[in-house]
Amino acid sequence: MPELPEVETIRRGLEKLILHKKIKNVVILCEKSFRGDPKWVVGQKMDRLDRRGKALLIQLSNKMWMMAHLRMTGQMIFEGGEKFAAGHPDGGFTEKMPGRHTRVYFDFEDGTHLYFNDQRKFGFIAVLDELGLAEDSFLKKLAPEPWDMKSEDFWGMLQRHKSAPIKAVILDQSNIAGVGNIYADEGCFYAGILPWRRCGDLEREESDLLLKGLCEVMQAAIDSGGSTMKDYVRADGTKGSYLEKFAQVFRRDGLECRRCGGMIEKTRVAGRGTHYCRGCQK
Ligand SMILES: [Zn+2]
C-alpha cells in the first residue's frame, strides 16, 4: 500500500513533470474512480502540487483542487519525454499505457499524459472547490504529520489513549498523520518499544524517541524515493522492493536482526501484521 513517503515521492516526481501543463482531455474508464465533473478540469493548467497525509492535491488554474487517494493499489504514471511511475509497485510500472488497471487519464496539450492506475479500485480522484476541500471529511480529521508535531503534543496525544496499544494509536490518522504499517513497525524498532505496549505505560523519553523514530524512518523512505519504478526494477532486471534497502523489521520475520543478531518475529497488533525484535525492543 502506498504510504506517505510514496505519495510524497509522487508529488516531488510529478511536480517536475506536470506543473503548468494544460489539460486537453480527461478520459474516465471507471466511473467510481473520478468524482466530479470533467468540465471542471478540461482546459485548466496544473498550478500547484501539494500533499496532506496520504492525499495528493493538485490545484488547477481555476482554483479547483483535484484530490487523489491511492489507497491499496493506486499508481500515478507520467508518459512524455521521460517516464515516471510511482505508487503501488506492480506490473503497471512497465506496462504500455493506458494499461489493464488504468482508471482515469489526462492528456496534456503538449502531447504528454498522466495515468491513474488502480487495480482494486479503492482509490479515486475527486474534484473539489476551496470550500469542498476545507469541508472534506478525510482532510478535516487529519492530525499533523510527525515532523510538524512537537514532543509535548505527541506525548499529550499518547496520554489521551493510555489503555490502547501504541501501534493502534500511531496508525490512526486523526492522532498522527501519514504513519502506515511499515513505518509504525520501523518507528517502534527505532525507539526500542514493543508495538503492543499500552500508551500509558510509556516513559516520556520513549515517547520522544518514538516520535523521532517515525520522523527518521519516514524521511529516510522519502529520501530513497519510496516505491518508484526506478528502484523497483533492479539493475539485473529482476523485481525488487525498495524495502530491502532500509527495513530493519518489516517483512523480515525469520531473518536475523541487523542490530542484535536475534530473530525478527511476527505477530498481529491492531489487526495488522506486526514485526519486531525481542532483543532490541522492550
Ligand atoms: Zn534486534
Any descriptors?
282 residues, alpha+beta, N-terminal domain of MutM-like DNA repair proteins, 5-stranded antiparallel sheet, 9 helices, globular
Q: How would you describe the overall organization of this protein?
A:
- This protein is α+β, with helices and mostly antiparallel strands.
- The protein has two domains: 137 residues, Alpha-Beta Barrel (N-terminal domain of MutM-like DNA repair proteins); 132 residues, Orthogonal Bundle (Helicase, Ruva Protein, domain 3), CATH 1.10.8.50.
- The protein contains nine helices and twelve strands.
- A five-stranded antiparallel beta sheet has the order 1-8-9-6-7, covered by helices on one side. Strands 2-10-5-4-3 form a five-stranded mixed beta sheet. Strands 11-12 form a two-stranded antiparallel sheet.
- The model has no long low-confidence stretch (mean pLDDT 92).
- The structure holds zinc ion.
- The site of zinc ion has 7 residues, from loops.
- Zinc ion (ZN) binds next to loops.
Give the secondary structure arrangement, pairings included.
Elements: H1 4-18, E1 23-28, E2 34-35, E3 46-52, E4 55-60, E5 65-69, E6 74-79, E7 83-87, E8 102-108, E9 113-118, E10 124-128, H2 130-135, H3 137-140, H4 151-159, H5 166-171, H6 181-191, H7 204-223, H8 229-232, H9 243-246, E11 264-269, E12 272-277
Parallel strand pairs: 2-10
Antiparallel strand pairs: 1-8, 3-4, 4-5, 5-10, 6-7, 6-9, 8-9, 11-12
Helix pairs in contact: 1-7, 4-7, 6-7
The protein binds zinc ion (ZN).
